[in-house]
# Entry
Amino acid sequence: MSGTLAPVKPGRLIINGESVDAASGATFETRNPATDELITTVAEAGIEDVDRAVRAAHAALEGPWAKMKPIDRARALWKLGDLVLQNADELARLETLDNGKPIFESRLVDIDTVARCFHYFSGWATKLTGDTNSVNPGWFTYTLREPVGVVGAIIPWNFPMIMVAWKAAPALACGNTIVMKPAELTPLTAIRIGELALEAGIPAGVFNVLPGKGRIAGEALVKHPLVSKISFTGSTEVGQHLMRTAADTLKKLTLELGGKSPNIVFADADLDAAVKGATTGIFYGKGEVCGAGSRVLVEKGVYDDFLAKLVERAKKLVPADPLDPKTRLGSLVSRQQMERVLGYVETGVKEGARLVAGGQAQPVNGKGAFVQATVLADVDNKMKVAQEEIFGPVLSVIPFDGVDDAIAKANDVFYGLAAGVWTRDLKKAHTVTRRLAAGTVWVNMYGFYDPGMPFGGVKGSGFGKDLGEACLHEYTQVKSVWLNLE
# Structure
C-alpha cells in the first residue's frame, strides 16, 4: 500500500519554537496499522521535556504573545488555517498512514474541518469583552476576560489533527499558550501543524508539541504547577484519573470522554434516510468515534424492515486500502484495538445477540487491523455490547415500543455524549430531544459538527465544551475591577 511512497521524516518535539530531540534522546516507532510497516521514528518526550515546554509556554504569556494585538492574533490563526489547506495533501497522507482512516475522510473531510476551526476561532480573538456593571454611582465597576494561562491539551488517536484544532484554536484565540500532547499512536499531524503554527507567525513558546507516552508526558503535564488548565479528549477511565491528579494543583478541566450514543428510529421516520444515517453514524471513522451512534434503537413496527435495509447497506462496506480514494472502511488504529473490538463481538453473540453482518477481521493483502462492518441484532440494552464503549465498527440494534421505552433505553447507560432522533413528527422530535441525557442531539441527521456549535457530554461522558462560543468560557477567566470615584 505505502511501500512506494516517499519516506516520512522523523518526528521531533516542538519546544519554544524549535524542533528538538527529547532530552533523553529516546524515540519510539509509529507504524501504519493498515500494513504493519514502520512509518518513521518520533522523539519521545519525558518529564524534563514537559518542564521545558511548560516553562517556555509560561514565559510566552508575558512575551510577544501577550503584547500582540487581538487583530494580529486573529491574522496568525487565520493564516494557520490557510496553511493547513495549502499543505492538505501532506497532512491527509500523514493522518491516513498513522491512523488507518480512508484518505477520503482525511483529505475531503478532516482537512476542511481543521482549517475552518482555525478560521472560525480567529474571529473570536477580537470579540472577547468584559462588562461594565453599575453597582454604585460612586464606583466604576467592570470585568475583564483574561486567558487562563498555560493550557495542557491531551488528545486521542481517532481524529488527531481535528483534535489539535479543537483545542489549539480557541485556546490561542483567547490569548493562552498551549502544550499539546498527541496520542503515542498518531503523533505525526500534530507535529506538522505545530510547525505550520510557527510559519503562520505564532511566536515561539506559544504552541508546543510533545509526542510521548500518556503515563509519562501526559501525567507530567497534568501535575505541572505552571499549567492552569487541562483539556482532554479520551476514555472515561483516563479522564477520571486526570481529574483526581489535577486536584492537587486545582487545575481547570475540560473532559470530553466516551460515549454509547443512541440513534433512535421511530416508525414514522424516513427509513431510507435513517438507515443511511445509522450506517454513517457507526461506520464513519471505522466506529472509532466518541460520538458514534453505536446503539440503534428501532421502534418494533419497522424493526424488521429497517434491519433488512441496514444489513444490506453494511455488507456493501468492505475494508480496503486506506490510501485508495474509493475506500470507505479503513483499518483500525492498531492490532490491539482490533482484538478488543472482535472480543466484544464474541461477547455479544454469547450474550444472545444475533450476528447479521460482519463480525470478522478481514486483512487487506494479508495485512492490517481491518474489521468488517458488523451488525448485532436483537440486542438487549443490558448486554455488555449495549452498555460499554467498543470503539469500532460494531452496531447494536435494539427494539423498543413507544416513546417512553425509547427514552428509558436511550438514557439507561453510563454515558451521555450524543444521540440521534429520526421522525417526521416535529412535536415528537422536540419533546424527545429534551428528555435525552446527551450533550448533542441530531434530528433526522447524525454525526455533523461545526466550529460554531458546542460539543461535549454529560454523565460519564464528561463536562465542559469544545467548539462554539460556549468553549471560550473554558479558556478564559473573569476578573472584577472596582474603582472608587468618590
User: Anything to note?
Assistant: The chain has two domains: 13-257+461-480, 262-451.
